[in-house]
Design brief:
By secondary structure, this protein is of the alpha+beta class. The protein has helices at 15-19, 24-33, 53-69, 104-112, 114-123, 139-146, 149-157, 162-187, 223-229, 253-263, 273-284, 295-301, 336-345, 394-403, 428-434, 436-459, and strands spanning 3-8, 36-38, 47-52, 196-206, 215-216, 230-232, 246-247, 266-267, 291-294, 311-317, 320-326, 351-360, 363-371, 373-374, 380-386, 407-413, 419-427, 466-471, 477-481. It has three domains: 3-66, K Homology domain, type 1 (Ribosomal Protein S8, Chain: A, domain 1), CATH 3.30.1370.10; 104-187; 196-481, no CATH class. Bound molecules: zinc ion (ZN). Zinc ion is lined by residues 94, 96-97, 99, 110, 116, 119.
Length: 494
């Protein structure tokens, strides 16, 4: 009988599945197949099965089946539902082209779409002298059309209110001209690809236990407690499974309760961007700077459409502005992206943040940003996944500029987001070069908006201690004084 020593590829996150509760599964496998199995503590070393050839092979097959069974369930596609009590100026769904609309701006955009023109032409040939198929219109053209009787009547008959739409078109045109003005102001600033100058960086682990007694981010935590939760520690090493496609792991129970806290933006699950920066500065003796914030704040200044929807609270301590970021949306941690991270890095106990000292124009920043993983040589990696094979976005590239990731680990997923199909490395330097124009424009916008924020603080020295900052529909900063939120950690006196 030929005996062999077989290497079985088992990603770190699935090793618990092979071992089972108290080693039960491991014992069962060894008894059933009459083999000996070694699961090394070090995740970088493979699982080994020793015994007769056929038994080893059968056991390895069983292990692969178990891994498959513990993978994620396919993601159900969510139908986009129109809002219940939608506006009366437009139907929730266009009876002509079936597009859904949730706001006046969306209703206007829909009228501009070529899809709608085509449906209108199908419904009413009389409009053909005003419309051409497959053309996207601008707001003025829609304004003109809404004044044409046949077009107007057709829309009225389908639940649109042309008068209201015309009024909103006027408002939209004003907004567009403000947007254009800001755009031109941005372009007047120098086109500097190196607008963000990194001066130093450390990587810190945030201990988010115990989970009991979690509090909303709006309440300031204790500085000493925050400092105790920080220690210098790099994120885990990302290892692409040797066998692809690999099933993505399901969320486990213990991890889930943690993720819910993190997703709901509660302390200590979420340390609170600028507050974390202050704790790190205090603990590790980082010199004072002008602004302490998270990457989101830089992204919002740069005009990132997701981040400008969030709320920021700013409070000054001596000469430093501390920024607390409160995301608008509940962040679902049980998404495919997190499953990919767990497949590549194993079950993470804590999360790690890059804390970067950088300079934009004359302003010094200390910016914290969550980092995913490192490669075998200890360089920071940004893990991005997508089911369409294009995981890198310009927002992601801006992120690497701030957090110092040396490369993207790009992951391609199947349609149902249950499997990792392929993974490849794209060096950040090269991607930043590809996105050079976007990054330059981000810089121009960020510098323009930063000047507005600093101007606000120089004009309002003592009127309110905490400012609530949001961005309007032109992505311009709007300040309101806030009395309910305390940004600075408690005990930050000297
Ligand atoms: Zn339509």
């Amino acid at each position: 009988m030929v005996r062999i020593d077989l290497e079985v590829p088992v990603p770190a996150v699935y090793r618990g599945v092979v071992i089972g509760k108290g080693g039960e599964t491991l014992k069962r496998l060894q008894d059933e197949f009459r083999v000996s199995i070694t699961v090394p503590k070090d995740d970088s070393r493979p699982v080994r099965v020793k015994g007769p050839v056929s038994k080893c092979q059968a056991c390895a097959d069983e292990i692969q089946k178990m891994i498959q069974k513990h993978g994620r369930a396919p993601k159900k596609a969510k139908a986009k539902k129109p809002t219940q009590n939608s506006h009366t100026a437009y139907p929730p769904e266009c009876p002509l082209c079936k597009s859904t609309m949730n706001s006046m701006r969306e209703a206007l955009l829909h009228l501009q779409s070529s899809k709608h023109q085509t449906a209108v032409l199908d419904a009413c040939s009389e409009v053909s002298c005003w419309l051409s198929e497959g053309k996207t219109l601008d707001v003025q053209e829609v304004q003109g059309l809404l004044k044409v009787p046949v077009y107007r009547d057709l829309h009225e008959a389908h639940g649109f209110k042309p008068e209201d739409l015309l009024a909103s078109a006027v408002v939209e045109l004003q907004r567009l001209s403000r947007v254009q003005e800001i755009h031109e102001d941005s372009l007047r600033l120098s086109a500097d690809p190196a607008w963000l100058k990194v001066e130093g960086r450390m990587v810190v682990e945030w201990n988010d236990t115990p989970l009991t007694g979690a509090v909303a981010l709006e309440c300031a935590p204790d500085l000493v407690d925050m400092m105790e939760r920080c220690r210098l520690q790099a994120p885990p090493v990302a290892r692409v499974p040797t066998v692809l496609p690999a099933p993505l792991p399901r969320g486990n129970h213990k991890q889930k309760s943690k993720d819910v806290l993190r997703g709901a933006h509660k302390y200590p699950g979420e340390p609170g961007s600028g507050r974390l920066g202050i704790a790190i500065m205090r603990k590790f003796g980082v010199p004072e700077c002008d602004i302490v914030c998270g990457t989101s704040f830089i992204k919002a200044l740069a005009g990132d459409s997701g981040r400008v929807k969030d709320t920021y609270y700013l409070q000054k301590f001596k000469n430093t502005i501390c920024v607390l970021h409160i995301p608008k949306r509940y962040h679902n941690q049980d998404d495919a992206g997190h499953a990919v991270e767990r497949l590549l890095c194993g079950e993470a106990a804590f999360c790690q943040f890059a804390a970067t000292t950088l300079r934009v124009d004359g302003t010094s920043f200390f910016v914290t940003s969550e980092v995913d993983a490192v490669d075998e040589s200890g360089e920071l990696l940004e893990i991005k996944s997508s089911k369409h094979g294009k995981p890198i976005s310009k927002e992601g590239v801006l992120q690497t500029l701030v957090n110092g990731s040396k490369a993207f680990l790009c992951c391609s997923l199947d349609e149902g987001q249950t499997k990792l199909l392929d993974a490849w490395v794209a060096p950040a330097k090269q991607v930043q070069q590809d996105y050079r124009q976007s990054l330059i424009y981000y810089g121009q916008r960020a510098r323009l908006m930063l000047a507005k924020v600093l101007q606000h603080f120089s004009e309002n020295q003592s009127t309110a201690s905490v400012w609530k900052l949001t961005f309007d529909d032109c992505k311009l900063p709007v300040f309101d004084s806030s009395e309910t939120v305390h940004v600075l950690p408690l005990g930050l006196d000297s």
